[in-house]
Amino acid sequence: MSEGRGRFERVIAHADMDAFYASVEQRDRPELRGRPVVVGGASRRGVVASASYEARRFGVRSAMPAALARQRCPEAVFIAGDMKRYARESRRIFEIFGRFTPRVEGLSLDEAFLDLTGTERLLGPAAEVGRRLRAAVREETGLVVSVGIAPVKLVAKIASDLAKPDGLLEVRPREVEAFLAPLPVGRLWGVGPVTEARLLAAGYRTVGDLARADTPALRPVLGDWGAALARLARGRDFRDVEPFREAVSLSEESTFEYDVTDRRALETTLLVHAESVARRLRKEGLLARTVVVKLKLGRRRAPGPRGFPLLTRRETLAQATDDGEAIARAARGLLARTKLQEAVRLLGVGVTHLASARERQLDLFDSAQGQARRVRLNQAMDALAARFGPGTVTRAGVAGVARAGLTHQIKRGETP
């Protein structure tokens, strides 16, 4: 939506499942109901993917290290999790969302924006639509969803969070600025711990403080981004719901159960991740021009989750590709040039600079016959993976990669 359009024309809902993974486990296992349940974090380096509200009362939160979660709630039931089951439930939930509007923008397995603009004559007032949506999800899945409704995405998302658990909150157009003003600046989209600390040090504690700030005063604190953040603080969020948003990058990574120094194990992990990323590229009909390797070193330099050094290396290919071996070859080269001097805690492979596969060009240094043979091989592997699941067929010498915990989200193009 352009800034020239009416500021409060839209009606946007943000639907967010309550403690999704943990709620699925409690629904399917009656003995867990009413007990603190933590999904993920089953291993020594695991991270909490979802915590039931019984566990949250003890201060357990998503993305918390498993060790800390166990300290805070020793009686919690820790479950490794089943992403296939959660993905099936997600598909059922999104099918329900789609009955209310075709404009649904999924953010993850358990949350989405719904554009309800112009549906009032057909569906009724937005708050009533939200109530019916919540009732349909509960009746058909046995799960609970909280809903926020507002004229802009930022406010709808904050409203759904404040409505939890099991609630609905509507912020009308005339209420937006008053709704935002008392909130801490950390509530704004894009404000992470570093930016929040910078804003607090400069005297901006609430969203209202930021909304009243002069743009020139923000420049020394946030640079050019300050003006955009001040507009958000005033409720000026002009982003549309994008049901067909294109991916700008794809990635796959693992935190190892124990730090890894063996070069062969690292290269095997790179190949596994490269194949997974390539499979998703092919499913999306995309080619990637740039390969990125991400490494987190094993020796802590500072306290907190950011205390481990993080390295990224990238290479732009001569030809865009969707072939796992080509991506792995580039990734192995990046790893070799890094010249590691210590163990690796996390290793990932990503691709960016994506383009449609219709733009594929023949590689002048590779025979058309060899390229066609790789395309047929990849198509056969994709067909087997679609029928029997990822990992059914792998390249020779490739073993599974042990993760320290449950992946937090299903990436685009990957069928769990």
Give the secondary structure arrangement, pairings included.
Elements: E1 12-17, H1 20-28, E2 37-40, E3 48-51, H2 53-56, H3 66-72, E4 77-79, H4 83-100, E5 104-108, E6 111-115, H5 120-123, H6 126-141, E7 145-150, H7 153-163, E8 168-170, H8 176-180, H9 193-201, H10 207-211, H11 215-222, H12 225-233, E9 249-260, H13 263-284, E10 286-297, E11 310-321, H14 324-338, E12 344-356, H15 368-388
Parallel strand pairs: 2-4, 7-8
Antiparallel strand pairs: 1-6, 1-7, 2-3, 5-6, 9-12, 10-11, 10-12
Helix pairs in contact: 4-6, 11-12, 13-14
Report what the structure shows:
This protein has 15 helices and twelve strands. By secondary structure, the protein is an alpha+beta fold. A five-stranded mixed beta sheet has the order 5-6-1-7-8. A four-stranded antiparallel beta sheet has the order 9-12-10-11, covered by helices on one side. A three-stranded mixed beta sheet has the order 3-2-4. Strand 7 (145-150), helix 7 and strand 8 form a beta-alpha-beta unit. The longest helix has 22 residues, at 263-284. Residues 1-8 and 407-416 have low confidence and may be disordered.
Summary?
With 416 residues, this protein is of the alpha+beta class.
Could you name the key traits of this structure?
single chain, 416 residues, alpha+beta, Alpha-Beta Plaits, DNA polymerase, domain 1, five-stranded mixed sheet, four-stranded antiparallel sheet, 15 helices, 39% helix, disordered N terminus, disordered C terminus
